[in-house]
C-alpha cells in the first residue's frame, strides 16, 4: 500500500457514490491505494451508500463518528487509520475533481522526491461557489497570509497530499486542516502548490456558513500564530561514546 485517500463526509449521500467511483478511475493506473471515507455522524444515507459499494470497490474502507466532530477530526481519524505513507485528502461534496489527485501525490511518490518535501497543496482556480463565499474566502486567505506568511493562496482547498508521519506529528486541534501549510512549515518541512480545478456542488448543501466560519477563524488564526512563535527549534543528535569529552571545558592547570 503506497497511497491512502481520505474523504471527510457528512450528509453527502447524493455525492459520495460518484466521488468514490471517480477516485477509483483516476487512481486505477497509479499505485496500490485505499479509499477511507470518514462519516462524520451523517443523518442521511451516506453510510448505506458506502456499504453498497464495498463489494465493487474492495479498496474502500469506512470509519464513522457517532457524534459530529468536524472536518479536522474526520481527517485526523482517517489519516490515523491509513496504511500508506502518503495520504491524499479531498472533500466529500464532489467539488474537488478526483482527476486532480495524481498531480498531488505524484511529487511525493516519485523516486526523486525531495526528502524535505512533506505537503503538496491544491489551490483552486475558477471556484464554483457563491460570490459571498468567494469573497469571504479571499478575505480570510489574505489575512492569514499576511500574518502567517505561509505563501499559500487558498488553504481552504480540500485537495492535499502529505506524508502521513509528518501530519500526525503536527499539533492537533479543531479546524487545523485550514492551516496545514503554516503547520508543516513550522515543523521545518517544505511545501509546494498545485493549481487545481473546482466543480459546482451537484446536490445537498454546505455544512458551513460564512459568519460562523469567520468568527471561529479569527480565534484559530491567533492560536496558530502562537504555535508558530512558540515552536521548539532545538534538535538533539545522538553522540557516540567518548565524543562528549571534546565538549568538556578545559581544567585550569595549577
From TrEMBL:
Q: Which domain of life is it from?
A: Bacteria
Cellular compartments per GO CC: plasma membrane
Q: For the Glycosyltransferase 2-like domain, which residue ranges apply? A: 4-167
Q: Which GO terms describe its biological process?
A: lipopolysaccharide biosynthetic process
One Pfam match, given by its short name, reads Glycos_transf_2
Keywords attached to this Swiss-Prot or TrEMBL record, sorted alphabetically, are: Cell membrane, Glycosyltransferase, Lipopolysaccharide biosynthesis, Membrane, Transferase, Transmembrane, Transmembrane helix
Give the Gene Ontology MF terms in alphabetical order. undecaprenyl-phosphate 4-deoxy-4-formamido-L-arabinose transferase activity
Q: What is this protein called?
A: Glycosyltransferase involved in cell wall bisynthesis
